[in-house]
Amino acid sequence: MVLIDRQFYISVINKIELLGFAGITVNEELKFQELINAANVLDLDGDIVNSTIEIRKQRKTKLPDAIIAATALVNKLTIITRNTKDFDKIEGLAVVNPYDI
Length: 101
Hints:
Elements: E1 9-11, H1 12-19, H2 26-38, E2 40-42, H3 46-58, H4 63-74, E3 78-80, E4 94-96
Parallel strand pairs: 1-2, 3-4
Helix pairs in contact: 3-4
């Protein structure tokens, strides 16, 4: 199974989470920035905001996770994460744990 073939996407929230850690080393920041530069970063728009609101109304979901899920739903993308439990109850969302493959 190929998880990422040519291009991949991340939510602007992923960018914030990767670069926003206190105590991140210069080397880690460079690696994260390289990953971010290779990705297509999806910003918030009205559809993602509205989808985030609906997810938050339906499920007890942390705001960053709701935004990531909404970004994936609106753009018809699959989330690749080890942390599937934060996303597994969101209807219509495709989630893959790469460690299960």
